[in-house]
Amino acid sequence: MISGPRGIGKSTLAYRFAKYVLANALADAGLFGTTAFPDERSDLHLAMDHPVFQRVVAGGHGDLLVIERSENDRGTRRSKIVVEDVRRTQNFFHMTAGEGGWRIVIVDSADEMNVNAANALLKVLEEPPPRALLLLVSHNPGQLLPTIRSRCQQIRLEPLAATMVADWLSQHVPEASSQDLQTITVLADGSIGRALGLLECGGISVFTEVMTLFESAPQIDSNALHAFAAKCAGKKGADTFAMADEMIRWVLVRAIKYASGDRTGEFTDREQALYGRLGDAVGLDRWLEVWDKVDELLASTDRVNLDRKQVILNTFSCVSQAASAR
Fold this sequence. Notes:
The protein is of the alpha/beta class. The chain has 13 helices and five strands. The longest helix has 35 residues, at 269-303. The model has no long low-confidence stretch (mean pLDDT 88).
C-alpha cells in the first residue's frame, strides 16, 4: 500500500515499481528482503526506450493489470470502483505469468472501491498466489477496511518540501510572477500534482477573490461578493464553485491553525496579515463555529441541490458576522 496526500507521486511510484519488477521478470527476487535483481539500482531506474517501459506506457504488458474506475453503460466514468472491476484481479492472478515472472496489479486508487469491491479485494489478499504483486494507491488509508490495511506492507509518502515545489514551479512555469509562485507553492501543500491542478483550473484567481472577500470582513463589499457568487452559479459555474469550496475551506482551516498558535508550515504574506488582523476579533472558538456552519453548508450544496450562488452569499455572511462580533 502506497499512501500519502494526493498529487505527490504515489501512482508514479507504483508504476515505477511495476516497470522495474517486470523488466527483471525472471530474477529470483524477494521484494521485501534481500533482492537478486540483476539490474539492481536504488532509484528503480528504467530507460524510456526499454521494451517493458514502452509496453507499460502503452497499456500493453500482459503481466500488468490496472484497476481503476470503469465506465458504465452510458460511457461515463463511475464514481466508484465496483466489484466487477476487482474480480478481474482474481481471474488475472489465476493465470500464469506470460513472461514467466511476476504478475502485477495496480489499484488506483483503493479509496474509490465500494464495499463489495473492497470485500472482493480482501479475498485476494487473504490467499495471494505466488509471484504476485498487488500495489494499492491510497490517499486516505483510514477509509479502507482494517483487514485490508493489516495485510499490506505500508509505504507512506510525505509531502515534498516547499523549497522543492518552488524550484520545480520556477523551472516549469517560468512565466509566473514571484507572487503567484509563492501562492501556488503554499497552496500546493507539498504536492506537485496539486500545484499543476491549481494552475490549470485558475486556482490563483479564485484564491485571490476568496482572500479579498475574507480581508474585507466584517464590512464585505456586497458588489464584489455578488459578482463572485454569480460566477459560481449555473452549469458554467460548477468548476468555479468547486474551486471556491476548496479555497474557502483552505482559508478557514489555516485560520483555525493560526488562531490555535500553530504557526508551523508555510503561510503567504496575505494569509499572515489576514489571520493576524482577524485573530483578535474572531478567536479560536468563533473560527471553529464558523467552520461547522460553513462546512455543513458547502457539503449540503450538491447533496440537497442548493443554489450555489446563495451558498456563497451565506458562507461569507457567516464570516462577516463572526468578524463583527465582540
